[in-house]
Amino acid sequence: MDLNACTRVWRRGKLEEENFPAARISEYLAEPDTVVWLDLCHPDDGGLDLISEEFGLDPLAVEDALSHHERPKLDRYDGHLFFNAYAVHLSEESGELATHEISAFITDRALVTVRGDEEFDLDALRRQWDSSSDLAEHGVAYLLHGLIDLIVDGHFAAVQALDGAIDDLEERLFGDEVPTRETQHRSFRLRKSLTLLRRVVLPMREVVNTLLRRDLHVVPEPMTPYFQDVYDHVLRATEWTESLRDVVTSLQETRIALQGNHLNQVMKKLTGWAAVIAVPTAVTGFYGQNVPFPGYDEQWGFVVSLAILIVTAVALYTIFKKRDWL
């Protein structure tokens, strides 16, 4: 195999070598007590065909690894498992959620990860493994736990960041007399990000729960508590995501209600001022008739009409103001 890939090999629970040529994987797998990790970033068909021959991978699993936008899942094939998930990152500035698809082939002595892009943090994955190197004796289960734990921690961090962004949006929503266009745009982006996050977080509960099944023989007994801890994190992230969905829905309804209340206030003020102006208009229109009336062609008649205009306008303004119509 001539592939540009990241590699590591453990022997009897100890890291022996890393970043060696992928062509040497066969040599290590031929030796006892070794576990191999191989990472491929956006491989082509030919590269995965070589891997498929080396590890005996099912063509359907290989096709899923090459496809994009597969749902998070864990499929069982003869001789290996196929795992698909998404690492996520929320931009606090824009409120947009970025997803990075990662697939993995799980065999008895090897973990082959396939990334859709270069955004997934491999250094963080290495640090995750190095921080729990005492578990390396458990082989592929140790590697798989580090990978899933890193992905789930990213989900949890994104949910937490979304929660903070939604709290900030709530303060802005109630702080503004009228929701601004920027507030409305941010609300839309956060709702879109939350919907996308739900699509990648919710299926992980089924994935991790399936891994804990004893008939798969993937997770040895000593590693069960660690996978159970990951499962608890998945449940918390799922429940938190569902609660945020209700909060966002309530905020949307509140925003619409605030806009309606503001429109009512505007219409009430306009109606009040229209009434204030309507009475003087009626009086001047009445006195503008070309017929004699009391005080016609007299100065006191003009004074009386002017007094009526002022008194009625002030009276209407006082009444409407007292009723908070103005």
Automatic annotation (TrEMBL):
<dbReference type="Pfam" id="PF01544">
    <property type="entry name" value="CorA"/>
</dbReference>
<feature type="transmembrane region" description="Helical">
    <location>
        <begin position="270"/>
        <end position="288"/>
    </location>
</feature>
<keyword id="KW-0812">Transmembrane</keyword>
<feature type="transmembrane region" description="Helical">
    <location>
        <begin position="300"/>
        <end position="320"/>
    </location>
</feature>
<keyword id="KW-1003">Cell membrane</keyword>
<keyword id="KW-1133">Transmembrane helix</keyword>
<dbReference type="GO" id="GO:0000287">
    <property type="term" value="F:magnesium ion binding"/>
</dbReference>
<dbReference type="GO" id="GO:0015087">
    <property type="term" value="F:cobalt ion transmembrane transporter activity"/>
</dbReference>
<dbReference type="GO" id="GO:0015095">
    <property type="term" value="F:magnesium ion transmembrane transporter activity"/>
</dbReference>
<protein>
    <submittedName>
        <fullName>Magnesium transporter CorA</fullName>
    </submittedName>
</protein>
<dbReference type="InterPro" id="IPR045863">
    <property type="entry name" value="CorA_TM1_TM2"/>
</dbReference>
<dbReference type="GO" id="GO:0005886">
    <property type="term" value="C:plasma membrane"/>
</dbReference>
<keyword id="KW-0472">Membrane</keyword>
<dbReference type="InterPro" id="IPR002523">
    <property type="entry name" value="MgTranspt_CorA/ZnTranspt_ZntB"/>
</dbReference>
<keyword id="KW-0813">Transport</keyword>
<dbReference type="InterPro" id="IPR045861">
    <property type="entry name" value="CorA_cytoplasmic_dom"/>
</dbReference>
<comment type="similarity">
    <text>Belongs to the CorA metal ion transporter (MIT) (TC 1.A.35) family.</text>
</comment>
<dbReference type="GO" id="GO:0050897">
    <property type="term" value="F:cobalt ion binding"/>
</dbReference>
